[in-house]
Write a structure and sequence with these properties.
Length: 493
Amino acid sequence: MEIILHKTTPVEARLPLLVIGLIEEAKDNPSNMRLTGPLADMAEKIIELGDFKGAEGEIALVYSLGRVHSERVMFVGFGKKVEVTAERVRKSLGVAARKAREMGVEAVGINLTQLALGGLSPNDAAEAAVESFLMGSFHDPFHKTQGLDKYKQVKELHLYSPYADEELERGAFLGRVLGEAVNMCRRLSWGPANHVTPSKLAEEALNLQELGVNVKVLDREDAERLGLKSFLAVAQGTLEPPKFIIMEWGDKKKDTVALVGKAITFDTGGISLKGGEGMELMKTDMTGGAIVISAMRAVAQLGLPLHVVGLVPATDNMPSGSAYHPGDVVDTYAGLTVEVISTDAEGRMILNDALAYASKNYKPKAMFDFATLTGAMSVALGEHTIGYFANDDGVAKRVEDASHTSGELVWRMPLWDVYDEQLKSDVADWKHTGGRPGGAITAARFLSKFVGDTPWAHFDIAGLMEQKNDKGYNPKGSKGPAVRLILDVLRNW
Ligand code: BES
Ligand code: MN
Ligand code: ZN
């Protein structure tokens, strides 16, 4: 999508569609519309007719019939003035973006003036507009060969603001980078397991080399040599070549931050086989890895003044004659031995090696991991909130702050050592699962054994792998969760 800034009012625009936000207070006093001329007349009319109140989520499409040069005007309700936050703008414009795409409109103009009514700076308004428009209009035909003419895309986004300057352009650029990162994550996460293989993820990572990212892809033999035994235990059951992907960006003299993402390209459960119903959703069990690859891309595009390391252990989890068994005792990169209880708890088996590898070889100032780790987390918090665990209040504070700016909801979960009781093993240092009670917590406790003294946060995104219906800036499919959240952590570093 091309993004074009105009230092004019949208009245001059000659586009198929103009999008204009209205707050609820517009009905009390026309000056609250921040519109003049024919656009103000239109807004006043729909309010007078009682067709539109400016409430959140309201949309009114008006055909301009020559009153302005643009063919259509879409008024979007923002709710009360004080509620016009970045997230409100994103949600409302996300819906408008989807409508625009569904209408088959190829160029859309947005007036930024109304976006800043609640106190957002013009730059932040531009960022939110571009970001939400990219996210909301996202629509991928994936592997369809028929009916492709229905897959129209909005090709041009025009932004109108009297404040258009270099800073506003930077805001629009930020919005573009973040929106595209989310869409990249969605595309990879929703891709089927026979296409989005570990090799495909490695290829996506290698593509980042053109942005200056250093990429190393370890295969089975390399991983063997390094002693990534726990990762390989999961990978030993599949014919699909596993990859341990290492990405590195930025100046080593700057603060190092490590990102780790679970990339089980398909989770059958292994020998502890899952039930068949709904198993196809386990194609998204590499969402954590997709988050890390997409975030690395954005970090490089933004040129953040940090040293960021991204690790993505990627493999299928399959039952086969060579698969690991329940009861196996497995060595790990950290040197601890682990008793396997359920081969379906494969995520923590590949993550422990990646976390230990990162903390030992990079000694990061902070480490973040992303994983569709436990059904227990999705039972606890549902589909709206990311549960996270942190061994350090400073890291937790960064997460909370990023949650406020990105609008991605998070909830800190307990990481108390009393839960270790459930992980005691008679034959190894630790069992790798602790039964049903507090399943997300014992999983996090297990991971905590492998991070050394690195300040660390673990995000269990199991509840957020799927968006079931179009909503706000999330179309049906993958939500692309935690991408903007972690990018806000890194931008505010
Ligand atoms: N990938 C799953 C977690 C998952 C389940 C995510 C459902 C989204 C929806 C993970 O590998 C898994 O199977 N976890 C087990 C752990 C258990 C065996 C301790 C689970 O949650 O049931
Ligand atoms: Mn599993
Ligand atoms: Zn899994």
